[in-house]
Amino acid sequence: SKLISLGQLEMTWRSRVHFNPLLVRVLHKSRLRYYGKPEKKMDMPYQAYFEVADGSGMMSVVLWNSLCPEWYNSVKVGSVLLLEQYAIKTNYPFKTQPTPGDSQMKRFATIEISLNVRDPPTKISIIPEEMVKPEWGLPEVKYRFITRSELDNLPNNHFCDVIGLVTFVGRAERARKREHGEDFWLYRWAHAIDGTSDQPFILELFATSQPDVFEHIHPMTYLVCTQMRVVRDPTENPSSTIYLTTSNESQIFITGWHKGQPYTKDTKVKNFIQWTKTQNEGDQMKKTVIGGYYPFPRPPNNFLKY
């Protein structure tokens, strides 16, 4: 069938009734959002979005309602999709924008692709990686991995990817989403080291839509976290309060989940694996901690400051 590129789509979408199929690669994946309300009777009020790209640039794709339980877990970062019978909408202005690994990539921000069960019923096909041809010109997934020694120089709100060996993982804690609301965020703290600094990465990991990974983070696992946001308080001692928190597009992977992920080709990931081979497992295990209450950022040393 005759394909259309994302660039052509943005230029000609107003003058079209039917849209040609799209062939794209998934670069980012958001967490699953539930938007149900008691007064609205909807079967499956779910939504998730993906940032997809072809040779012309990057655009958002929104997956709606019952397509979410059907497709959310199958579509991964790096998947190649053939999309047919989709709808086009003007872009939702308040959506979060992930930071692309490739800073040269063009972003088409005026429209987004909408995948629905009907009006029209979208057809989604996942193309196996071994069938993807180089002449299709699809971009590779690129990352922004940093080492722990580089973290101290990064500004507040900077986005990055990290890999480390888990030395501490705290218990799951809850925080209210709104002051008097009944909804909670679930999160846990973790420390991970990569051999480039005496200090660990301090990670605030919110439960993304990967419960099977979130619940099994434990010491001595290799932890990869993508699209993490730097949080630092400039008024405090900068190095003691810097930590990383998950964003809407963060993905978390632990030992057992790394096989076949696009980041395994990244140089900094390979360097980390080389470093772990030089470490004595028994020595590292003596330094690991699990559970307990972890107050962070720490309260001041004396009561007057507090």
TrEMBL record:
Top-level division of the source organism's lineage: Eukaryota
Entry-linked InterPro entries: NA-bd_OB-fold, RADX
Gene Ontology molecular function: any one: single-stranded DNA binding
Pfam families, alphabetized: RADX
Name of the protein: RADX protein
High-level lineage: Eukaryota, Metazoa, Chordata, Craniata, Vertebrata
